[in-house]
Amino acid sequence: MSTTKTTDDETGVLRKVAFASGLGNFIEWFDYGSYSYFAIVLSQIFFPAADRSLQLVQIYAVFALSFVLRPVGALVWGHLGDRLGRRWALSASILVMTMATFGIGLVPPYASIGIAAPILLLIMRAIQGFSASGEYAGASTFLAEYAPAHQRGIYVSLVPASTAGGLLAGAVSAFTLSAVCSPEGLLSWGWRLPFLIALPLGLVAWYIRIHLEDSPAYQEMQERLKHEASDDKPAHPILTLFKRYKKKLVIAFGVSCLNAVGFYIVLTYLPTYLEEEVNMSASTSTGITSVTLVGYVVLIFAMGHLSDKFGRKRMLVTACFAFMVLAIPAFMLLGTGSVAVILAVEIVMCVALTINDGTLASFLTETFPTEVRYSGFALSFNLANALLGGTAPMICTGLIKLTGSSMAPAWYLVTISAIALVAMAFCVDRSGEDLASSGRTD
């Protein structure tokens, strides 16, 4: 009887951890989605109307700042998560991120306070980027260290699923508010609602997190350290990461490159590509991408389950080959302009992407030992996203202009897939290992 009770209690805690982890990540990407889909509206509100193209460049420049600060935030939150605990870091990061997102919804327009408006927006985005850099890695680490070893993949796949869910919710909210509000209403108050709603959602996630115990693997590490001589205790987590686990860090960065580029090309850049290169209407291209996002959420859990069954390395290698084989013909078919063909292509690309994304978070948690797991995951993942993810739309656009070929993004995706494949050749598959001891040796 006591065993059943213990099992029920553990299942209840795991569900709370999963909910809190997914909700925090959902809020982050709901904001990113809302910001992207409201870009034209925000550019009119926060920048002078002298040049429409300059307005958009400025609003996207503010968006890009959050990626620049991600590696910095990764160092800070990684250190705090490994030094003070996963629960503490996640509770603090969601609170900071929620307040910054809520703050965006309160910033007055340029017409009211002039240059102070874009400056305040810039500050809020900077705070967001700093705090959000610990969210994906922290949520994945926290959930992985709670999940049963044989089901780690499917549980941790909740984190990337909540990412796509947030983007989809941002698209739906933008579409709904644009349809319900008058143009004047959308400019005055409608755009603010997605940012303001972050406060109650964030406080719910924060409340759940502060009432959870830290992960079993982290508690076990703390108990072990109490019985070790002080000279043997790990130093600063970041210093330990660079001193002992440089190879793991480089491998993790290389593997994360495909996630960074693939995610932003397939789910955020393709609508722009279809409008600019295929002359498809904005509503049609956005609608196709929204359907793809739904497919992503559904497929990601299946891929997490398959990674538990077949191993992370096999799944990630499969994703590399899939992109290398499919990218060129996929972009050729996009050029047909057929809605049915383009939808089919995006779904196929989505399948390849979910093979990677449904596996990567579990792989990264298993790559690093407990003492530097948060730091190693956060730094490798956020560095890849800062250098290659946030810049993917810009690089693809630049390559098309440089080469004169609309196929340039496909070749870029193939190149990144090859880099990730090389990184995978040097990794050790630790699928299903006990995270209390996983990855302690190179």
From TrEMBL:
**GO cellular component labels:** plasma membrane
Annotated PANTHER family: ALPHA-KETOGLUTARATE PERMEASE
What does the protein in this record do? Answer: May be a proton symporter involved in the uptake of osmolytes such as proline and glycine betaine.
Which residue ranges run through the membrane? 56-76, 153-177, 189-208, 249-270, 282-303, 315-334, 340-364, 376-404, 410-428
| Lipid bilayer topology | Multi-pass membrane protein
Q: GO MF annotations for this entry? A: symporter activity
Q: What is this protein called?
A: Putative proline/betaine transporter
- Protein species of origin: Nanchangia anserum
